[in-house]
Amino acid sequence: MAVETATTCPACRSPLSEPALREALYVCPSCRTHLPMPARERVAMLADPGTFRERARGLVSVDPLAFADQRTYRDRLLEARRRTGLREAVLTGEARIDGLPVMLICFDFDFMGGTMGSVVGEKVADAFDHATRRRLPVVSVTASGGARMQEGMLSLMQMAKTAAARARHDQAGLAYLSVLAHPTFGGVAASFAALGDVLVAEPGALVGFVGPRVIEATLGEHLPEDSHRAETLFRSGLVDLLVDRPHLRELVASLVRHLSPARAERPPARREGRRHRPPAVTRGGETPWEEVLLARHPDRPTTRDYLDRLLVRFVELHGDRQSGNDPAVIGGVGELDGQTVVIVGHERGRTAEERQLRRRGMALPEGYRKALRLMRLAAKFHLPLITFVDTPGAYPGYEAERHGVWQALAQNLQAMAVLPTPIVSVVIGEGGSGGALALAVADRVLMLEHAIYSVISPEGAAAILYRDPGRAAEVAARLKLTAPDLLRLGIIDVVVPEPPGGAQAAPDAAAAAVRAHVGAALADLQRLPVRRLLRARQRRYRAMGQVGTYWREVVRTEMQELLDALESRLPRRGRDARETEVSPSPAPDGPGRQTVPSSG
């Protein structure tokens, strides 16, 4: 049994008793530093009382190399067992969190620095394999110095063993939430701990492959104080969430609920009024340039505004797991009318400061790679994907080019074309160029009445065509960028009505209209088997630009507009004569009299 001792906070030097630490979840009450937490206390914090059932308790480490330094490996193992009350550095077992069944993996840093030897690797792999057989999500909390050097290469090979077990669990379509506690280094960080569907870090945790002290000792490099901090990883887009320990259980329960197979695969609940399609708009009353100004209105609701009104229990996820977290793209998982969905959207910001930070929704490659990661999350868990489009285009700067924005856009287009789950896209504001399309390859494309969607901005087109951006209003009409234009072209499927004066005049009403149309679209799409869904999506985009029904309608409409324009320019006298000629008359046609043929 573990021995209770008094300790001192390493950050503020406040004295802390063991009972007080337990009560505070091993978070210093004075400075909020997150201290190492024993594995059994971790289990007690996360699991519903009385539900934890330990696995592989009988496994104990041996000394395969007969290793000894100042002390033998066997002596170190015996001391660690006595001090912690555990047989090894990890505790695994089935449990329930808020009633939801899970497999728990909790490390104890006090047991030889939480290092991973053969038994630790076996227990972790066994936990993943058992979870795969039982179709359970896995929740791990790691605190480790890495591989256990006393077991040599046998220890290193546990990285491959645990990663392979996680791969089998992943292929089974099961969720894995990885919580990175202080510290998580070496072979644990660089194997299964990095492979979570969602990565959560505790504040102040040091995480990485090689620790700062080892880097400085071996390379002589002096590192910044925050080089390995969780906060730095979060800013760099390498972890999804930074969560205080007192809120960890609630977050884990929410994510497990969203990503559980039973929830993801259940048929959508029927809703009242679903059989009646919500009303749509077919024609607008504003000029194209007036629509451009409405789409860009500074008070127009953003993606965040719609998420706040449409979703419950929304968990925003961050970062591309490569190089950064772009605030111009936001996304995560939440519930829409009782169904879990994945949401991704451009976010241009609500205030002047936010618009500057988020570049008015013009995303960097990191933003599109974050979106791609969320798309793959939707596919894995068979969750519908809803995207919100509101950007003048991808960010046109040097850094974006240097980091491969063109590749990021192409990868999104390819992924959405074959994503095996329903996709509904909503153009809510300004949809510009490839930066908009990279979130809008969908089974159903909805567009708000006063939104715009264009190959280029009117100002950009005017600058290219006339070398005069001031002629943007003139060019806007020619770009056919309004919702009715695009409905006629077959680019979008539905024009969603807005309140009088635009969505900014009544955001709640605008959100209600979006909810109704998105819900109707999802109801239609979720009736289709995945194979039919993908075939229909492929046919949709294969036909874009081909001469057919849409183009015949365009030609017919433009011919009628041309005839109307010609008629309006005729002298009044000529119009009167023309009207007389084409009006029904019992008199026989005289020499040279003609009738105007129908434009149809």
Cα separation of the termini: 91 Å
Relative strand content: 15-25%
Q: If you compute it from the alpha carbons, what radius of gyration comes out, rounded to the nearest whole angstrom?
A: 31 Å
Give the beta-strand count: 17
Helix count equals 24
Poorly predicted regions are 264-275, 577-600
Question: How would you characterize the largest beta sheet?
Answer: 8 strands, mixed
Percent helix range:
40-55%
Task: Report the structural category.
Answer: alpha/beta
Mean pLDDT: 87
* Anisotropy-based shape: elongated
Secondary-structure map:
Layout: E1 7-8, E2 15-16, H1 18-23, H2 39-46, E3 53-54, H3 73-84, E4 90-97, E5 100-107, H4 118-134, E6 138-144, H5 152-171, E7 176-184, H6 186-189, E8 198-201, H7 212-219, H8 230-235, E9 241-242, H9 248-259, H10 261-265, H11 288-295, H12 303-310, E10 312-316, E11 329-336, E12 339-346, H13 352-357, H14 365-380, E13 385-391, H15 398-402, H16 405-418, E14 423-432, H17 433-437, E15 444-448, E16 452-454, H18 458-466, H19 472-478, H20 483-489, E17 494-496, H21 507-525, H22 530-542, H23 549-569, H24 572-582
Parallel strand pairs: 5-6, 6-7, 7-8, 8-9, 12-13, 13-14, 14-15, 14-16, 15-17
Antiparallel strand pairs: 1-2, 3-4, 4-5, 10-11, 11-12
Helix pairs in contact: 4-5, 12-21, 14-16, 18-19
